[in-house]
Q: What sequence folds into this?
């Protein structure tokens, strides 16, 4: 059986090195959803390019689906890999840990990189991160917890969106 994620990731590297594969979802309706991202954001031209290329790759590999859907991860992009966490250091995230800390598993705050890697090998899993958040009781009291990727159950970007145009 073909590893669809690996196949798609390799196919994307064949057309553009700056397009990252975020996720692939197979829906029960036969939709195959491929979620892509890149440093400066995904535009419609990127989705069109990826769609045309993957149609050919998936046909050659006999991948079964009814409809192919290519999209960006949106404003609440999930963070899966250590490279995602490194890329989005300094951004606001929602984080759920596998085990509770001080009776809590879910935190919303600013992602910080604790110890940058000494080499370009991001697969070493040695990078420590932290999240800086306000205590519920006192909004002025900032707290920090440290974690590594193995501690994370789920993480996603958690931007504060202001549709009224007011600066905060």
A:
């Amino acid at each position: 059986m073909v590893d669809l994620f690996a196949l798609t990731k390799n196919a994307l590297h064949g057309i553009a090195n700056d397009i990252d594969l975020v996720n692939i979802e197979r829906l029960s309706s036969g939709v195959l959803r491929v979620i892509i991202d890149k440093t400066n954001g995904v535009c419609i031209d990127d989705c069109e390019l990826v769609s045309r290329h993957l149609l050919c790759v998936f046909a050659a590999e006999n991948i079964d689906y009814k409809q192919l859907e290519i999209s960006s991860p949106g404003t609440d992009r999930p963070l899966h890999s250590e490279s995602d966490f490194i890329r989005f250091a300094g951004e606001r995230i929602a984080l759920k840990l596998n085990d509770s800390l001080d009776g809590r598993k879910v935190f919303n705050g600013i992602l910080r990189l604790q110890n940058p890697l000494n080499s370009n090998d991001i697969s070493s899993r040695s990078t420590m991160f932290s999240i800086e958040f306000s205590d519920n009781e006192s909004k002025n009291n900032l707290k920090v917890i440290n974690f590594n990727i193995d501690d994370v159950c789920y993480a996603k970007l958690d931007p504060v969106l202001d549709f009224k145009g007011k600066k905060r």
